[in-house]
């Protein structure tokens, strides 16, 4: 077992037919690889058993969450190298007739098995969602999925998100702080919706109440916010009371499918539609359409994946499904637009904010790293590690154009087909009271 790092490096380079771009430090104290490169620290050989049991992303994620694998040096650089070795090559492997039969793969697996120690691998970390059965996106299953992600402690999210408590892409203009960029995003949404005093706004997936507070305080709207997270709702109500806005905002723990008190003048859905799922997306669009008055506007802010040959596939990667967003699904922008229009909406504007989300995620990672000990105490070491990996990897995905995020402004047409919107494009940018 001596010099495990050199043996791992040799196995990897034989498989890849190229030098390993990261340095390895193994559990026996040995190191191997290019000097100055980020260091992949393998603290225990059971991490190799996880990788053998679940090759690729999920096995590596389990080892990361359990603290058996870590990175020293530039996290983004290391993840960029690992993504190229694991994810990109994994995608190419599906085109191979018998990838598992390749002699190099067999030799690599035998070498890992020799280093991995006693079989079988340990159980997955406690932070992993248990295997789910039954139909997707029932009310009960969605509630459990939302609870897994959002009910991990408001104190934890406050450390990561900062004072704005906005858990979606900020809108960066000429630098500024994260809080300023989040305020500008909320204001952009309000302006696109054309909010004015007395308008009824439904905020679907209202989170910790930031959008509802901004719309009520700055634009005089009457806001109903719905969420499936009891922790979010409690925090939002506390903030609303502190702002003196309880007469303008109601926060409900309620499924969007159960909202029945329309019509509303406007609907905001910010970072919520990713949870809806392909089997429910048409229903989601039709429900929101029915809740709007004629001429009412919908602002749908949603992450999108890039199109693939199989356009019926709404998918999310194995790590995110197991540890971050259970049952979450990403669709291409074109599919989302088509479904909204099939429900009766007219799409009036699309704005892409991909680079904005990468900047936002990097700020969240910096917040988490700055407050690491507090974050661990607020939740668990494994949960904090999940969020650090998820947010850093997501930042790279946005930067490399693997995923995007878009704001779609859609309108329920007036009787006779009119939109009620001004002729000039994007005249909503004047601000409150314009």
From TrEMBL:
GO terms for molecular function: methyltransferase activity. It comes from the Bacteria. GO terms for biological process: lipid biosynthetic process; methylation. The keyword Manganese does not apply. Pfam families: CMAS. Residues 119-140 are annotated as: Disordered. Residues 156-396 form the Polyketide synthase-like methyltransferase domain. InterPro entries: CFA/CMAS (IPR050723), CMAS (IPR003333), MeTfrase_dom (IPR020803), SAM-dependent_MTases_sf (IPR029063). Keywords: Lipid metabolism, Methyltransferase, S-adenosyl-L-methionine, Transferase. Belongs to the CFA/CMAS family. This is Cyclopropane fatty acid synthase. It comes from Streptomyces griseus subsp. griseus (strain JCM 4626 / CBS 651.72 / NBRC 13350 / KCC S-0626 / ISP 5235).
């Amino acid at each position: 077992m001596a010099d495990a790092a050199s043996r791992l490096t040799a196995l990897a380079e034989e498989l890849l037919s190229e030098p390993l771009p990261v340095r390895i430090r193994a559990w026996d104290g040995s190191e191997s690889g290019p000097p100055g490169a980020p260091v992949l620290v393998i603290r225990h050989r059971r991490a190799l058993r996880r990788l053998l049991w679940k090759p690729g992303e999920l096995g590596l994620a389990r080892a990361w969450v359990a603290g058996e694998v870590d990175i020293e040096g530039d996290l983004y650089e290391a993840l960029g190298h690992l993504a190229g070795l694991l994810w990109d090559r994994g995608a190419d492997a599906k085109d191979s007739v018998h990838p598992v039969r390749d002699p190099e793969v067999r030799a690599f697996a035998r070498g890992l098995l020799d280093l991995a120690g006693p079989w079988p691998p340990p159980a997955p970390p406690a932070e992993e969602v248990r295997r789910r059965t039954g139909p997707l996106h029932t009310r009960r299953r969605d509630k459990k999925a939302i609870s897994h992600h959002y009910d991990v402690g408001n104190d934890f999210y406050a450390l990561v998100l900062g004072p704005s408590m906005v858990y979606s892409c900020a809108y960066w203009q000429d630098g500024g702080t994260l809080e300023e960029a989040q305020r500008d995003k909320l204001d952009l949404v309000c302006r696109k919706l054309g909010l004015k005093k007395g308008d009824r706004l439904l905020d679907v997936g209202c989170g910790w109440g930031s959008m509802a507070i901004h719309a009520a305080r700055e634009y005089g709207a009457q806001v109903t916010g719905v969420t499936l997270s009891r922790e979010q709702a409690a925090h939002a109500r506390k903030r609303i009371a502190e702002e003196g806005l309880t007469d303008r905002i109601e926060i409900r723990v309620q499924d969007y499918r159960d909202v029945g008190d329309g019509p509303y003048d406007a609907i905001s859905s910010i970072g919520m539609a990713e949870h809806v799922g392909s089997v429910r997306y048409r229903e989601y669009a039709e429900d929101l359409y029915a809740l709007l008055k004629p001429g009412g506007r919908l602002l749908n802010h949603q992450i999108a994946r890039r199109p693939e040959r199989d356009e019926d596939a709404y998918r999310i990667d194995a790590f995110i499904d197991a540890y971050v967003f259970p049952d979450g699904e990403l669709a291409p922008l074109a599919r989302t637009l088509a479904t909204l229009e099939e429900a009766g909406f007219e799409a009036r504007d699309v704005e892409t904010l991909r680079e904005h989300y990468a900047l936002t995620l990097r700020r969240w990672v910096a917040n988490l790293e700055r407050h690491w000990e507090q974050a661990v105490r607020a939740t668990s070491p494994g949960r904090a590690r999940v969020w650090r990996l998820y947010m850093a990897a997501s930042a790279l995905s946005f930067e490399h154009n693997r995923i995007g995020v878009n704001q779609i402004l859609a309108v329920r047409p007036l009787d006779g087909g009119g939109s009620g919107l001004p002729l000039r494009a994007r005249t909503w940018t004047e601000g409150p009271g314009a």
